[in-house]
Specification:
Elements lengths: L14 H4 L2 E3 L3 H19 L3 H5 L3 E7 L1 H4 L1 H4 L1 H9 L9 H6 L8 E5 L2 E5 L4 E3 L11 E7 L4 E11 L2 E4 L17 H8 L5 H13 L3 H24 L14 H10 L3 H21 L3 E3 L9 H11 L5 H21 L4 H4 L5 H15 L4 H13 L17 H20 L10 H14 L12 H4 L4
Parallel strand pairs: 2-5
Antiparallel strand pairs: 1-9, 2-6, 3-4, 6-7, 7-8
Bound molecules: iron/sulfur cluster.
């Protein structure tokens, strides 16, 4: 497989590409493939009617990590959902969980008056190693009686982002404040701009949305994050799949209130909130990518702490979320947020760094302290492998969210207690090191379930 390369253009991502509402358990294996199915459906509907008249079925080929762990990650159901026209942000999570299951595991896909039937046999789990430029590759085909009538190759590049063969970045507005690195971003702020202003100006310039709509969108993201924590705390029992893993969030939350020591209480609360959203994700519930679904418990846990224990205003919390986005943008732009590309350091490590930056801004620290905290959190997740047991986003993923939320708080404390100017390791360096470490990492540890816990707990 070709190597992932950092982008040399200024950061021009949208906040709502990074923070996406959608069903768990995986942004790259669930939300991305669903978006690919939806895009393929749109393309098929644009084909001349005479092509559709000859259509006999649909076929999907999953490659790389999508094949290795696609079953446990619901990739087959995600492709079917997209082909049905279901979008990640509005999908009915229980209906999605039932798709391609039960006594009649067929999806009937209506395409301009033609009904094509998709069954689990139409989804091929292909080879792990292939020559496409991204690990997570899928090929969707419209089949005729003799073979494919039309096909498209898609790449799920992490965090629910997709590209396709021949992809060209979409035409979009240029960012008002151009930056490509944390050093560049901090340099922009020396003239008196705030980080929140840079992020909001860029969002409106890139997407054309009004600032009012952007703020309303941010509030929807905050609500969806908090809702994922609440639903997780209200649900007990086993997570789906063969592992038989019990949900722990509700029990931990109850135990936290019994603790006398304040430090224990704070830690247990953070654990419970991170676990709650991560368990929702593992169960296929609706979460927000931050930056991915597998790591969707880290930022919401820290946000709930700020809201309920620090009683911060919505304005402070929004500003914190904008810093988290800046951190996530820079990691995605210059390295990767995909477990299949760089291991779990790109997912949980990025989430922890985002949460650390968020804490600093929301609690009134400057952007250089936020950059230091993000650096510390990412540095101490370097080398973190991705080895989900039995291909399900449960072990080690769920607890890893709790560990990362706690680590973010510690990174905030470490950065706040020091002088950012004297920090030896810069954020941009650690992002580069993360990418290099990911490149050196064996493919066994990049969401393939072929190494680590996945092989040592294969029959847990
Ligand atoms: S180990 Fe980390 S990167 Fe891998 S699936 Fe779990 S959360 Fe995602």
């Amino acid at each position: 497989m070709a190597e992932f390369r950092p982008d040399t253009r200024p950061v021009d991502l949208s906040l709502f590409e990074l923070f996406k509402i959608g069903p768990g358990p995986s942004s790259s294996h669930t939300i991305g493939p669903m978006a690919a199915g939806l895009d393929f459906r749109r393309r098929v509907l644009e084909l001349p009617g005479r092509v559709l008249d000859r259509a006999a079925g649909l076929r999907a080929v999953l490659l790389g990590s999508l094949s290795a762990t696609g079953k446990g990650h619901g990739t087959d159901r995600a492709v079917a959902a997209g082909l049905l026209g279901w979008a990640p942000e509005t999908v009915d999570a229980p209906a999605f969980a039932r798709l391609l299951g039960g006594d009649d595991p067929r999806a009937e896909i209506e395409l301009s008056g033609h009904t094509l039937v998709l069954t689990p046999d139409d989804i091929e789990f292909g080879p792990l190693v292939h020559d496409h430029p991204y690990a997570n590759t899928l090929i969707l085909k419209l089949m005729g009686p003799q073979g494919p009538l039309f096909e498209q190759t898609y790449y799920s590049i992490g965090g629910g982002f997709i590209q396709w063969e021949g992809y060209q970045p979409p035409e979009r507005g240029r960012p008002k404040h151009a930056y490509r690195t944390m050093a560049g971003l901090l340099g922009l702020l020396e003239g008196g701009l705030t980080l929140a202003r840079v992020m909001l100006d860029n969002e409106t310039a890139i997407t054309g949305a009004s600032e009012r709509d952007v703020l309303a969108g941010l509030d929807r993201i905050l609500e969806a994050m908090d809702a994922s924590v609440t639903r997780g705390l209200e649900t007990e029992g086993l997570l789906p799949g063969p592992i038989g893993l019990s949900r722990k969030a509700a029990g931990l939350s109850a135990r936290s209130s019994e603790r006398q020591a304040r430090a224990d209480r704070t830690l247990l609360e953070l654990d419970a909130w991170a676990l709650a959203a991560a368990e929702e994700n593992a169960a296929g519930g609706v979460v927000v990518t931050a930056p991915t679904s597998g790591s969707a418990g880290v930022v919401p846990a820290v946000l709930r702490h700020l809201r309920t224990r620090r009683r911060l205003s919505r304005k402070n919390i929004r500003q914190g979320l904008l810093t988290a986005a800046a951190v996530g943008f820079l990691i995605k732009h210059n390295a990767s947020i995909a477990g299949a590309e760089v291991g779990c350091q790109g997912e949980i490590g990025s989430a922890s760094a985002m949460a650390a930056g968020l804490l600093c801004t929301a609690l009134g620290r400057g952007p250089d302290t936020a950059a230091s905290a993000a650096e510390i959190a990412l540095e101490h997740n370097l080398g973190l492998t991705c080895d989900p047991v039995m291909g399900f986003v449960q072990i080690p993923c769920v607890e890893r969210n709790a560990m990362a939320a706690v680590k973010a708080c510690n990174a905030f404390l470490l950065a706040s207690g020091g002088d950012p100017a004297r920090q030896k390791v810069g954020f941009d360096v650690v992002v580069e090191v993360m990418l290099e470490t990911g490149r050196d990492m064996s493919c066994n540890y990049k969401e393939t379930s072929q190494g680590g816990l996945a092989v040592n707990l294969a029959n847990c």
